[in-house]
Design a protein that fits this description.
The complex is a heterodimer of chains A (137) and B (399). Chain A has one helix and eight strands; from the N terminus they run H-E-E-E-E-E-E-E-E. Chain A has 137 residues and is mostly beta strands. Chain A folds into two domains: 13-60, no CATH class; 63-137, OB fold (Dihydrolipoamide Acetyltransferase, E2P) (Beta Barrel). In chain A, the strands form two sheets. In chain A, strands 6-5-4-7-8 form a five-stranded antiparallel beta sheet. In chain A, strands 2-1-3 form a three-stranded antiparallel beta sheet. In chain A, a hairpin with a 4-residue loop joins strand 7 and strand 8 (129-136). Chain B has 399 residues and is an alpha/beta fold. Chain B has a single domain, classed as Peroxisomal Thiolase, Chain A, domain 1 (3-Layer(aba) Sandwich), CATH 3.40.47. A nine-stranded mixed beta sheet of chain B has the order 3-2-4-7-1-8-11-10-9, with helices on both faces. Chain B has a two-stranded antiparallel ribbon with strand order 5-6. The model of chain B has no long low-confidence stretch (mean pLDDT 96). Classes of the chains: A mainly beta (137), B alpha/beta (399).
């Protein structure tokens, strides 16, 4: 069997750097647009919908509900060949935006849309990156 | 607002689907030439009628696709356009071609989509892309590279399964109903010789017994990648009168693009086809009950189910019981994907979207052979790109 491809990791950009810096410190920083009174994710330079130039960083708790999920029994791509089942999830933060993630510390049979979930900070030291996963509250 | 219905599909072409290609390997440029020739022969028209071309792009040239093709085919163009709507590209090409024809910009427009990945490979320059990113972008600065791919949210199976799970949570889920969509379409494929699964009928139980890929989607609810390609020729009434086929008039269309990654959809289970279909029916002045057959983009069974609901053929949330109560085969009371759809004809890459245009036009032309729907005059066709993120509806009608 050939060697499993390395999993791609995020590379922070000038726009997103505060989000990734926050995760390393166990804080979740997302953008907020005062003129439209809405939180924004993922990071941008202008507010989506209005293109207002008023985005500011705010800290949120990261608590949310499970909007949807799947249990992938076949790897979604070669780098995850040894990672099945993959518990792919979309979390809706209490502040509104949705976040793509994976669930951990849960039996796949117990996953339910609408369940409360909490953040799990997962350091990847060799890359200097912290990923944000979720588990049931 | 909209089309007057004065442009028609006058020729169709579709290569038989093959899992492993027995045809010679051709560059996409040569596939364009081959499919252009096929669609003109089908229409019974000379290449000299063509003065418009709509393309998704050519693998051999990242930019300047219409000019590259104009030169290669030796056909000067008064209208050259590139459409980038994933699985909705083909349907998007057809309405753009019709609009250009109705504006009088051109007379006849080639809408060609090559679908063979088996192209000649360079001995000196190996491909750089590992090929598994699918519809996702891993380029630096891409939101997907940063916020989706690192969690394995890549490709299509996972995201479509997430859509199905959300649907299940809101409306309930009957695995036998989605499986029936696959089984009915297989019946259609068995009446269409070009389908990759011609001669291989399946039952609802076969679908449910096939391996789970991403819960709740089974293997037989996922398209089969094949090698192929498809094309149509869109022309004005004058050219149509010289074609050998019954013209298939493009009476209405709608297009709606809402997001790229489903994580950021406003509402994951109410899809952009709702707005696109409403626009198309209003433009055409037609009712849902006027539709004689539907060719619905079917990357997965759940896509067909949600399209039936969102396009207005049954109320939202009732699709599972609706497909159970209706016969979706070519002999049935609501024929869907009468050449097998991409689930059973096969998905020839980007040409998968054109399969549905060709399926609808073939029925209205009365050329579907064993799978012909009786008295078929009005076809509803959809295209779906990305993860139900960009969708196009077409209404096609015989005279």
């Amino acid at each position: 069997m050939s060697q499993i491809e390395e999993r791609p990791l995020p590379e922070p950009t000038p726009v997103s750097q505060p989000f990734w810096d926050g995760l390393r410190e166990r804080r979740i920083l997302v953008q907020y647009s005062p003129s439209s009174e809405s939180y924004v994710f993922y990071p941008r330079t202008l507010a989506p919908g209005t293109l207002a130039d008023d985005l500011e960083w705010r800290e949120i708790s990261g608590a949310g509900t499970l909007y949807t999920f799947t249990v992938a029994t076949r790897p979604t791509a070669p780098p995850w060949a040894d990672a099945v089942p993959q518990l792919l999830a979309v979390v809706e933060w209490d502040e509104g935006p949705r976040f793509s993630t994976e669930l951990v510390d849960v039996d796949p049979a117990d996953i339910r849309v609408g369940m409360r979930v909490e953040p799990v900070f997962c350091d990847v030291p060799e890359a200097g990156i912290t990923l944000l996963r979720y588990r049931p509250l | 607002m909209g089309l007057r219905g004065e442009a028609a599909i006058v020729g169709i072409a579709e290569l038989p689907a093959e899992r492993k290609q027995t045809r010679p390997e051709l560059f996409t440029l040569d596939q364009y030439a081959q499919l252009s020739r096929m669609v003109l022969d089908d229409a019974g028209l000379p290449a000299s009628v063509v003065n418009g071309l709509v393309t998704h792009g050519v693998s051999e040239s990242a930019m300047f696709a219409p000019a590259t093709l104009s030169e290669y085919l030796g056909l000067p163009l008064d209208y050259g356009e590139r459409v980038d709507l994933g699985g909705a590209t083909a349907a998007g090409m057809v309405w753009r071609a019709a609009a250009a024809v109705e504006l009088g910009v051109c007379d006849a427009v080639l809408c060609v989509v090559p679908g063979s990945l088996m192209v000649p490979r360079s001995q000196r320059r190996p491909p750089a892309d590992p090929g598994w990113y699918g519809a996702s972008s891993n380029v630096y600065g891409s939101p997907q590279a940063e916020f989706e791919i690192p969690y394995g949210n890549v490709g299509q199976n996972g995201p479509y399964a997430q859509i199905a799970q959300r649907y299940a949570a809101e409306f309930g889920y009957d695995p036998r109903a989605t499986a029936k969509i696959a089984a009915d379409q297989r019946t259609n494929a068995c009446a269409h010789p070009g389908a990759v699964f011609h001669g291989k009928p399946i039952t609802v139980d076969d679908v449910l017994d096939s391996p789970m890929i991403a819960d709740p989607i089974h293997m037989l609810e996922v398209v089969m990648r094949v090698q192929g390609g498809a094309a149509v020729l869109v022309a004005n009434a004058d050219v149509a009168s010289r074609s050998r086929n019954r013209p298939v008039w493009i009476k209405g269309f709608g297009e709606h693009i809402a997001f790229k990654t489903p994580t950021y959809a406003d509402d994951l289970v109410r899809t952009p086809i709702a707005k696109a279909a409403e626009t198309a029916f209003t433009m055409a002045g037609l009712q849902r009950s006027d539709v004689d057959m539907a060719s619905l983009y079917d990357c997965y069974t759940i896509t067909v189910l949600m399209t039936l609901e969102d396009a207005g053929f049954c109320p939202k949330g009732t699709g599972m019981s609706w497909v159970t109560e209706h016969d979706l085969t070519f002999r049935g009371d609501f024929p869907v994907n009468t050449a097998g759809g991409q689930l059973s004809f096969g998905q020839a890459g980007m040409a998968g979207g054109m399969h549905h245009v060709v399926d609808g036009a073939r029925q209205v032309m009365g050329r579907a052979g064993e799978a012909q729907v009786a008295d078929c005059h009005t076809a509803f066709v959809t295209g779906n790109g990305g993860i139900m993120s960009e969708q196009v509806a077409l209404l096609l009608q015989g005279a």
